[in-house]
Amino acid sequence: MTENVADAVEAELAEMSSRLTEPGERECLRCFLLRMLEQFGCDGTHRWTVRWRDLRSPGAKGLIRRLERQGACCCDCEVILNVYPYYPHTGPLLPCAGVLRAGSSVPCDLSALRRSA
Ligand SMILES: [Zn+2]
Ligand SMILES: [Zn+2]
């Protein structure tokens, strides 16, 4: 009995956190990673990159390997530092401007947001 309750709570927590960590429909990989790293940090793996890929671009089997070649050898922060280094330094994170094609790993264009700010 108590076990069932614990299971239910756990399932609910898992569902809640999976909603929190879900990439938006048009959210680019870069904005998603920044959001996740700010909230949950890096655990030294590509877990957020893998999550984004599984949910948004499940066919992109070579994505991680491609990012590794671009300098993100071991973890999500390196994807940000080495693959997507151009981000306006505005303090709080900007909302993702959205990518044209859902699942594209090309970062969104934040310059439009910056100009209007
Ligand atoms: Zn890291
Ligand atoms: Zn974005």
Say what oligomer this is: single chain
For the record, give the distance between the C-alpha atoms at the N and C termini, rounded to a whole number: 55 Å
The share of residues in extended strands comes to under 5%
Number of helices in the DSSP assignment: 6
Mean pLDDT: 89
Helix content: 40-55%
Structure ligands: zinc ion
Structural summary, described in words:
The chain has one domain (24-116). Helix 2 (29-40) packs across helix 3 (47-56). It is built from 6 helices and no strands. It starts with a helix and ends with a helix. It is mainly alpha-helical. Bound molecules: zinc ion (2 copies). Residues 42, 44, 75-77 line the site of one zinc ion.
Brief summary:
By secondary structure, the protein is an all-alpha fold. It is 53% helix and 0% strand.
Keywords:
117 residues, mainly alpha, globular, binds zinc ion
SSE inventory with pairings:
Elements (H helix, E strand, L loop, with lengths): L1 H19 L8 H12 L6 H10 L6 H7 L6 H8 L27 H6 L1
Bound molecules: zinc ion (2 copies).
